[in-house]
Design a protein that fits this description.
Order of helices and strands: EEHEEEHEHHHHHHEHEEHEEHEHHHH
Strand order of the largest sheet: 3-4-5-2-1-6
Number of strands: 12
CATH topology of the largest domain: Rossmann fold
Strand content: 15-25%
Bound molecules: guanosine-5'-diphosphate, magnesium ion
Number of domains: 3
Distance between the termini: 17 Å
CATH class of the largest domain: Alpha Beta
């Protein structure tokens, strides 16, 4: 399998201005000789005529050659930057398909080769998947930091220190009576183990903000039927996604809009209005709304300022912001003041009042929920549980100093293995298909 040369269209759908076809593997030089009759100078763009198997010109475009091992995959790589027409792309892919040892790449296969040749560790691979999937600025920044090796460096640093500590302790085991290995050496080894444990503890005490940013926040909009929930979500999304109707009880299912609020990904969930008398379908909608709200990061409670006063209920104690709607329909100034006192933000879709305030508040809330400090190291449950496992093993090794040294050294080994799982050095075979399956073809 590793002997194959893989190829794929790495750019988006055709037709497009430019299409990029890349190939990686031992047959790349042969492929270049066949299609462009020469091997271009490494890492430089060369303008060439690309030919099919019968020598007929298919297109003229830029060709790049990246000899391994200093390439993305660690193998020889070449890229054709072609005119992005369907027939052009199809003809070049056809020519590659006919070459011996060449086959179309599977999803994520280029990245998988980069992992297998050690160019990337598993946390960087995950960062790269997130970078491709990032929808907002804050997600992009976090993914770029991880793809650049932020977590890898931290884990490798910790692992090296644990290995060193173990080596010192094992020296003490092997030569218990030697003058050269005084007790103070093992004391300093244990002190460093304790330091590693507390550094990992700090990385874990991050309120899960890496995972939260990756997944995005969920805001559920609740309120009586006709409070203006669907209309407000439409206004936020600036497009018609939810059903807006004058007849109460039309939003029976749960509708979601994904928004970019100041760089933070927020999913706003529309719900069926909560009210007493309701038909069976509507009741089901209300049940789903309540369940969704319990799991939400934030609830927006909407109340029609020209309608009856409602009792705001946040299921499960989720943080809630009360919003007054339809301020334009309140007649007197007194009435307005009285109703506005019940709300944190007063809005009207007719006058546009309060919308910017609401968007600003949501963005600010998301920023605060993630904490102001720099990027989180941990962005996935997988990484978190491996680090937590490492910490447990370290604390076992550190505690019970009266236990045999062999046992404590073994716990240190388990702790290093847990770090090795984050970077993919240890026991990750069964995870790989899942992780690489997240990628698109050509990545
Ligand atoms: N005057 C006025 N009408 C509004 C405003 N927001 C919503 N509405 C109207 O209120 C009615 C109910 O709105 P809808 O979004 O369907 O409420 P939902 O049941 O809570 O989803 C519709 O006729 C909307 O056009 C507003 O700010 N001002
Ligand atoms: Mg609605």
């Amino acid at each position: 399998m590793a002997g194959d040369t893989i190829y794929a269209l790495a750019s988006g759908g055709t037709p497009a201005g430019v299409a990029v076809i890349r190939m990686s593997g031992p047959g790349v030089r042969f492929g270049l000789e066949t299609l462009i009759d020469s091997i271009p100078e490494p890492r430089r763009a060369s303008l060439r005529t690309i030919r099919n198997a019968s020598g007929e010109p298919v297109d003229r475009g830029l060709v790049l050659f990246f000899p391994g091992p200093a390439s993305f995959t660690g193998e020889d790589i070449a890229e054709f930057h072609l005119h992005g027409g369907r027939a052009v792309v199809a003809a070049v892919l056809d020519s590659l398909e006919g070459l011996p040892g060449f086959r179309a790449a599977e999803a994520g296969e280029f990245t998988r080769r980069a992992f297998e040749t050690g160019r990337l560790d598993l946390s960087q691979v995950e960062g790269l998947a997130d970078l491709v999937a990032a929808e907002t600025e804050a997600q992009r920044r976090q993914a770029l930091q991880q793809a650049g090796g932020g977590l890898r460096e931290a884990c490798e640093g910790w692992r090296e220190r644990l290995v060193r500590a173990r080596a010192l302790l094992e020296a003490e085991l092997d030569f218990p009576d030697e003058e050269d290995v005084p007790g103070s050496v093992s004391d300093s080894a244990w002190a460093d183990v304790a330091a590693v444990s507390s550094e990992i503890g700090e990385a874990l005490a991050d309120s899960h903000r890496g995972e939260r940013l990756r997944d995005g926040f969920e805001v559920v909009v609740l309120g009586a039927p006709n409070a203006g929930k669907s209309s407000l979500i439409n206004a936020l999304a600036r497009r018609d996604v939810a059903i807006v109707s004058e007849e109460p009880g039309t939003t029976r299912d749960v509708i979601e809009v994904r928004l970019d609020l100041g760089g933070y990904p927020v999913t706003v969930v529309d719900t069926a209005g909560l009210r007493e008398a309701a038909g069976a379908i509507e009741r089901e909608g209300m049940r789903r709304a309540a369940r969704r709200a319990e799991a939400a990061d934030l609830v927006l409670w909407l109340e029609d300022m020209a309608g009856p006063v409602t009792e705001a209920k946040s299921p499960g104690g989720v943080r809630m912001i009360r919003i007054g709607t339809k301020a334009d329909r309140v007649d007197s100034e007194e009435e307005r003041t009285a109703r506005a006192d019940r709300c944190e933000i007063v809005t009207s879709l007719v006058t546009g009042e309060g919308l910017d305030t609401l968007v600003g508040r949501l963005g600010e809330w998301a920023r605060r929920a993630l904490g102001g400090r720099g990027a989180a190291l941990v962005t996935r449950t997988r990484q978190r549980s491996a680090l937590a496992g490492c910490r447990v093993a370290l604390d076992e090794a550190l505690g019970g100093a009266d236990r045999p040294l062999e046992l404590r050294a073994e716990e240190l080994r388990r702790a290093s293995d847990a770090l090795g799982r984050v970077t993919g050095r240890v026991d990750v075979e069964e995870l790989l298909d899942v992780i690489f399956g997240e990628f698109c073809i050509g990545k």
